[in-house]
Structure formats: C-alpha cells, structure tokens
C-alpha cells in the first residue's frame, strides 16, 4: 500500500513462520464426528490467492478480524504488524486461518472445513436448508465465493478429502484405490517413497499395513542398497491386494461403547477398535499394528500384553479418553485383569498405570481362540524377527558374538602410552596402570569431572582413580586438581570455619564520641509511625529510639540526628552505619564532612561491622513484642519505656548505660535520691572520670574475652594482594535467572583492586552487578590454579557492528512486556550468571529471532 514494496522490509521471518503453522487435527478424525447426519453439502471456495497484492489484502482482513475476537481454541498467537506477520505464513495457512475465523461459530457443529473444502451436515432436510443458507450468507458477507460447478447439494453420500463419506461409515475413494492398483513397480528409492507416502494415507483401512509394508520401508533407508528382490515384490503385490479388499470402516459413535481388542506376540502388537452395531455384531472402526523394538521384545509376556494395551489406548486416545461409556479391553492374557488393583508394580508398570488412569475402561479376558483379529496383527513380524536370532541358544548374548571384554578408551590410551617405551617406576600396585605425565590431566578429569564421578572431593576422587591407575605423585596431583576445579569452586560451599578473625572497633574514651545508627522497618502503623531510628553510643551503650513515619531522606536524617544527638550530647567524632541509601547519599557525606565527623560504612553484605546497633535492634524488637503482644499497633507508646529499660539495666560490664554516661545510676524511688549525700560540681566531675576509666577497663576485658570466643569459629584470612583473583559468594548478590536453588554458590573470579584492612578488600566487579565492591573476607575464597587444570576460557570479545559492540546470546531466560516492546532476560554466551542483563527488543524485531541471533549490548 502507498507504493511501498515488500522488499523494503528486510527482516528474516523463516523462524517466525515455523511457529505459525496452523494447528489442524487429523482429517479423518475431524469429519468422522458428523457422519451420523443424513444430508450433506460440499462447497468449494475459490482458489487460494497467489498474487502478492491479493495476499496482502487477505492478510490485512485477517488481522482486522483478529483484533475483534479473543483467543480461542486452536488460535495462533497475536502479533503487532499484520501484513508482515501474515506474509510469514504460507498462503494455504492464511486461507485456512481466514475460513476458520469466518465460520468459527459453525465449525464442528454442522460444518467441517479444510482449506477450500466445506462440508455441511444436518440430520434432516429442513435443518439442512437453514444450515446451507447460513453458511452461504456468511461467505457472502466476507466476500468469499463458491464455484457452482464444484458444489454438491442435498446428498447422503459425498467425496471429502479423499474419502467417500456416508451416514455411519467411511471408505476409500475408488479413484485413489485404482491409482494404487495401477502403480508401476518402483525403479528407485524416490519412486518407492512416493508410493508409500500415497498408500500411507489409507493405512487405517488396511489390516496390518505396517507389517505388510515393512520390507518396503527397509528399502527407503539410505544405509540400505536399493535392490528390488522377491520379498519386496511380494510385499508390493500384497499391499495392492489389501487395498482392493479393504473393508468399510464403521464410523465411531461416541454415544456407544467402544471395544478394544489387543494381542501381543514375541515380535509385535496388534489392536482393533470396534463398536457393536444395531445387528448386535461387532464392526471394526480402525486397525492398529506396531513392530516391537529389540528392548520391548525382551519383555515377559505379561509386560508385552500390557504394552499392547498402552499403545492401543495411545493410538485412539482422541476417541477413548473421556468416552461417555466405559469401554472394554479384550485380551487373551488373564493376569491383566488384576493389573489396576495390583499392590506391587515395577517402575515401568507404575508409569503405565498413571497413563491408564486417564481412561475409564474394564479389562476382560478373552481366550486366544476368539481373539483372532489382533492376534494376526501382532504375529505378522515374527518371520522378520526370527531371522536375527541364533537358534539353539538361551543366553542373553549368544556366545558367537562375544569377542572379548569391554575396554575403556582412556584405558587403551594409557596402555598404548606405556607399552615398552616408558619405564614403570617401583611401587606400582598390581592391577594398576602407570600413568605417564602427558596423560595425567586426562585421567584426573575422568576421575573427577566425568559423569561417572560428578565432581567428588579429594578423598573420593583419589579412591576412584586408585582403583585402576597409579603414579608417584598421584595424591598431591589430585589435591591440586580438585582444589583448582572451577566447577567445584563455584558450586560448593566450603565446610571450613569462616575466614577473617574478629577485628573489633576501637573503644572510645568518652561517651557520645562514637555512635552507630540503623533503622528498624516493617512495623505495624502506630500513631502514623512505621519506622524506628536507633542510635547507640559505642562507649556507654546508651541508646535513643526515635519513631518515624517512614524512612527519611538524607536531609531529613541530618535534621533528626541534630535534634536528638547533637543538641543533647554534642558533635560525635565518628558515625558507623550500614550502606543504606540515606548513609551513602552525597548530602549526608558532605553534611558530616562540614561538621568534622568521619563516616564509617559496613562492608558489603556484612552487618557484623555495625554489630552493636544490630544487636540492640534485636533486643528492642523482643521487648516491644513482649509488651505489645495483645495490641501490636500500640508499640509507639511503649517505645520510651523500652528505651529507659535498656539504659537503666546493668550489662556485662557491671554498669548500666546511664551510669556509664552520667556517672550515677537513676534511682528507682524518690526517697533514694533524698537520702543520697549532696556533692559539689568538682566531686561530680571526678566521680564521672573515675567511672569512665573503670568502665573502659572493663570494656577492654570484655572485648578480649569476646574476641577469643568468636575466633574459635573463625580462621585466619588469606593474605590477599592487589591483582589476586578470588571467588565471590553469591548468597546476597542479586543474580538473575529464576530460583536460586541451583544457581552458583560463588561467582567470578574477580581481581582484588585494593586491600582496605586485613579483613576487607575491594574487588573489580562488572557494572551489571550494581553492588558495592568492598567485601569482608568471609565472602571470598581464593582462586586456585594448577598446571594440571587448564584455566577457564576468557569471555569472548564483542564484535563491532555499525560502531557498537555486539554480544552473542546463549539463551533467553524470561521475558516481560514493557510498553510496546518486550524486555528479555539474556544469558550471554561465554559469560556467567552475574553478567545476565535485561535487554529490550523493539517491536519491529520478532522475538523468535532473539533465540538464535545476536543482540546489542
């Protein structure tokens, strides 16, 4: 439209077209549902358009209809650009889509449609006239026309999709049967494939089709030389004969009871789907036969008979699943009658039992003398199967086929490497092979990284390797190989004590010179408050708990601290906090810098750095939980009492925070204060200084004791240097890609860019992680290398396309709609989970191309 040619849309749609195939059901099974109707009409619409302009107009009409209807059964997914989307489908798929949409409320009620063939069926003439008029009127409204010379009206028998359809039965088209009978003997593989493809269309009418055609199917294989022998000619002739004598199949009636006759032999299974007609005789509806593969031939007779039932139910599940009446399954194996009530089943039978639960049927025993039809279908492969057996043997593997014991490829390589050329050192155990140095990495990889081993530890790897191989330095090599395995390093959590001995903060010399702050969130609303700001004096442990309506900004936090700390206790020298957004904001840093206050922030995902305030938060939450258990929204009224309780109670130093800060203990009762002796200001100051000195000495003693206890569960940190590579624990890293259960425990390796102190380092992290790069050493472990283990391959460098980097996509993990576009979670090829990113695809780029193409960074 508008003079724009289709070649202007330079987008690859072959992958999209593969996903827009029309989901049509099997032709026979669709129109057999309406064969009970008496009158039928067959209408032939005009041909599918092939001209480009007509095709674009047809695609536009389809898109306009799709926007007016909701998603229904057997509908394709909706896209944005109708002509481009529609043109990605073949014209026949477009036409089928349009016809189905036009007649959507009539299909399967009194209309069947396949491309340009429309079949209308009705129970009587008056209803039939109404149905025909309704269909023709609908076609006229949508500018679709039928050719009169191709239409057939008011008939009880008609040809539809290569079948002759009449009330209650269906048979093959005589013209098609005559074409099979007149087919010449195939001269090559291509001609044979054409014949089998044509004949296979009517296989449901031919009793034992797959067995008769088995010699012909063998000749279609490219691995078999095409030789038209006596067996192939006999099968060709027999197949033609069965076409000429094929029975008329009865139409399956869902309102009547189905009967499934099954039987199994040593070589195949056979089944017949039947129903009892008004003459009280059982008439066939369809035939089924299948050749057993070598594994299935090894089943015992009970499992083979059960397999026959399973395959037959699966073949006709569209009729049997959800049948109105319980159907019968006739078998000549009496033990199968008890399979649905058996107490003990083997794993195979248990899986089949779950499949059988989808059907409502009864297994009934029928003697083999009466079970003739399926018995003949199941035994048609016996001659072909017996030709591969060795007579007179009862073993699973015939002795004539046993040439020697199995040999592993790795074992052969080791043997050939030491055969007479490499001297074997002393100490090699018997039944063990000496491994030369060139093959040791391969042996270690087999003993540790193969599927047989699945990355065990050092002890188990050594046990597995030592069963067959040996070399003098095997123990040390295994230790080095396992410790340098990148898969183990990223997937396993170390069971050793956490790295990094306790590094306590320095003890202040006076109250309120060093403070710590944090927030308690997630509280129920109380007088409009949902947050508590906790401020702890690191010297006296005196606290202030400030209720807030919500988390404050950096500016609001500065005002709160000035009102509750600076006004009462003066300016502190240092403030310790976590890395919340208020504490890392530029305003807060500049505010503290102007006042001469140093700011100490905790390392990444290590709240123990700010342990004093974290511990008080736990105590405060416990106290409020106990005091407000009956009415939690009243916590704000109980907060002053909880603060007073903490400040007035004695802790492990023997002093209360109030006494350590002010030099005296607040009295419990008024008469205690009147009985206390008065003292002057100088005496009060001296008493406060003596209290602080005594209190600080006790703090030092407690700190030494706590450090000794904590270090029992810790180990010394490795001596990291700038440039060292380490693994980073992914416990708190926001990795993308679904559930964390099977995500790596460690990511990396990353380089150390700075050593801040003995227990904190700074890493060189990719920007995609978006986390603070300073970590405690307990979150890290060294990256170990070994000559026996090749280092991991470096990520592939991006290609430059139109001046920008392009990375190759490994997999699309998830997607979501953002505006008019779609956002994808992309796993890049050659990169780990930490590098996954959210990328946006424009609407003009079809989503299926993302799974195999390349995406911009």
Automatic annotation (TrEMBL):
Enzyme type, top EC level: hydrolase
Any GO BP: DNA integration
SUPFAM superfamilies, alphabetized: Chromo domain-like, DNA/RNA polymerases, Ribonuclease H-like
GO MF: aspartic-type endopeptidase activity; DNA binding; DNA-directed DNA polymerase activity; metal ion binding; RNA-directed DNA polymerase activity; RNA-DNA hybrid ribonuclease activity
Similarity-based family: Belongs to the beta type-B retroviral polymerase family. HERV class-II K(HML-2) pol subfamily.
Key words of the record: Aspartyl protease, DNA integration, DNA recombination, DNA-binding, DNA-directed DNA polymerase, Endonuclease, Hydrolase, Magnesium, Metal-binding, Nuclease, Nucleotidyltransferase, Protease, RNA-directed DNA polymerase, Transferase
InterPro entries: Chromo-like_dom_sf, DNA/RNA_pol_sf, Integrase_cat-core, Integrase_H2C2, Retrovirus_Pol_polyprotein, Rev_trsase/Diguanyl_cyclase, RNaseH-like_sf, RNaseH_sf
UniProt domain Integrase catalytic: residue ranges: 507-674
Superkingdom of origin organism: Eukaryota
EC assignment: 3.1.26.4
Protein known as: Gypsy retrotransposon integrase-like protein 1
Keyword presence, Protease: yes
Database matches in Pfam families: Integrase_H2C2, RT_RNaseH, rve, RVT_1, SH3_Tf2-1
Coiled-coil regions listed: none
């Amino acid at each position: 439209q508008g003079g724009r040619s289709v070649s202007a849309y330079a987008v690859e749609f072959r992958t999209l077209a593969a996903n827009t195939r029309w989901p049509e059901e099997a032709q026979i099974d669709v129109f057999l549902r309406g064969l009970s109707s008496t009158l039928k009409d067959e209408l032939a619409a005009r041909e599918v358009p092939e001209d480009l302009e007509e095709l674009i107009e047809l695609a536009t009409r389809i898109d306009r209809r799709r926007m007016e209807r909701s998603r229904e059964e057997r509908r394709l997914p909706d896209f944005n650009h109708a002509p481009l989307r529609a043109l990605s489908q073949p014209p026949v798929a477009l036409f089928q889509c349009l016809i189905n949409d036009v007649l959507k409320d009539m299909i399967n009620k009194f209309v069947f449609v396949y491309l340009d063939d429309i079949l209308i069926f009705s129970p009587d003439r008056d209803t039939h006239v109404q149905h025909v008029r309704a269909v023709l009127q609908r076609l006229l409204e949508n500018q679709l026309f039928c050719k009169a010379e191709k239409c057939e009206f008011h008939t009880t028998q008609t040809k539809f999709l290569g079948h002759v359809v009449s009330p209650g039965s269906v048979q093959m088209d005589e013209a098609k049967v005559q074409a099979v009978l007149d087919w010449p003997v195939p001269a090559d593989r291509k001609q044979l494939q054409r014949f089998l493809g044509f004949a296979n269309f009517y296989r449901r009418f031919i009793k034992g089709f797959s067995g008769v055609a088995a010699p012909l199917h063998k000749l279609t294989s490219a691995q078999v030389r095409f030789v038209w022998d006596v067996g192939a000619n006999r099968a060709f002739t027999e197949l033609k004969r069965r076409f000429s004598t094929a029975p008329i199949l009865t139409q399956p009636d869902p309102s009547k009871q189905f009967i499934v006759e099954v039987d199994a032999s040593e070589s195949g299974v056979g089944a017949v789907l039947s129903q009892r007609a008004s003459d009280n005789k059982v008439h066939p509806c369809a035939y089924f036969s299948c050749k057993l593969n070598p594994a299935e031939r090894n089943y015992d007779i009970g499992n083979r008979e059960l397999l026959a039932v399973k395959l037959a139910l699966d073949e006709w599940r569209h009729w049997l699943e959800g049948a109105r009446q319980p159907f019968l399954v006739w078998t000549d194996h009496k033990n199968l009658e008890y399979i649905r009530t058996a107490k003990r089943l083997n794993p195979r039978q248990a899986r089949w039992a779950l499949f059988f639960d989808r059907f409502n049927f009864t297994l009934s025993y029928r003697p083999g003398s009466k079970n003739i039809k399926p018995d003949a279908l199941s035994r048609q492969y016996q001659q072909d199967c017996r030709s591969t057996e060795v007579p007179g043997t009862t073993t699973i593997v015939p002795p004539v086929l046993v040439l020697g014991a199995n040999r592993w490829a790795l074992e052969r390589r080791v043997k050939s490497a030491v055969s007479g050329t490499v001297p074997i050192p002393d100490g090699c155990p018997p039944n063990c092979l000496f491994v030369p140095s060139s093959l040791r990495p391969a042996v270690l990889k087999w003993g540790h990284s193969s599927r047989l081993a699945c990355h065990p530890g050092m002890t188990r790897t050594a046990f597995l390797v030592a069963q067959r191989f040996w070399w003098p330095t095997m123990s040390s090599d295994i230790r080095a190989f396992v410790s340098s395995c990148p898969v183990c390093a990223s997937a396993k959590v170390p069971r050793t004590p956490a790295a990094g001995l306790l590094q306590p903060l320095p003890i202040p010399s006076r109250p309120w010179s060093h403070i710590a702050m944090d927030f308690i969130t997630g509280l129920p609303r109380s007088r409009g408050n949902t947050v508590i700001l906790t401020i702890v004096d690191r010297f006296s442990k005196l606290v202030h708990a400030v209720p807030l309506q919500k988390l404050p900004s950096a500016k609001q936090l500065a005002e709160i601290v000035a009102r509750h700390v600076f006004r009462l206790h003066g300016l502190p020298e240092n403030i310790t906090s976590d890395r919340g957004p208020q504490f890392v904001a530029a305003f807060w840093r500049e505010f503290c810098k102007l006042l001469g206050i140093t700011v100490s922030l905790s390392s990444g995902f290590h709240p123990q750095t700010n342990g004093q305030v974290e511990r008080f938060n736990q105590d405060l939450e416990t106290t409020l939980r106990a005091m407000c258990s009956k009415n939690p929204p009243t916590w704000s009224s109980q907060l002053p009492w909880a603060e007073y309780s903490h400040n007035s109670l004695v802790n492990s130093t023997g002093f209360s925070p109030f006494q350590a800060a002010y030099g005296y203990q607040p009295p419990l009762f008024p008469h205690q204060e009147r009985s206390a002796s008065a003292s002057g200001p100088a005496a009060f100051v001296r008493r406060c200084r003596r209290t602080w000195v005594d209190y600080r000495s006790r703090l030092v003693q407690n700190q030494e004791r706590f450090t000794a206890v904590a270090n029992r569960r810790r180990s010394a940190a490795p001596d990291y240097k700038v440039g060292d590579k380490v693994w980073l624990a992914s416990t708190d890293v926001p990795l993308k890609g679904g559930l964390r259960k099977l995500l790596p425990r460690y990511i990396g390796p990353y380089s150390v860019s700075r050593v801040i102190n003995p227990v904190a380092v700074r890493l060189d992290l990719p920007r995609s992680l978006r986390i603070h790069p300073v970590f405690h050493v307990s979150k890290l472990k060294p990256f170990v290398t070994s000559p026996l283990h090749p280092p991991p391959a470096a990520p592939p460098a991006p290609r430059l396309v139109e001046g920008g980097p392009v990375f190759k996509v490994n997999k699309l993990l998830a997607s979501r709609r953002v505006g008019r576009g779609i956002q994808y979670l992309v796993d890049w090829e050659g990169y780990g989970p930490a590098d996954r990113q959210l990328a946006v695809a424009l609407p003009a780029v079809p989503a299926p191309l993302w799974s195999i193409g390349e995406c911009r960074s």
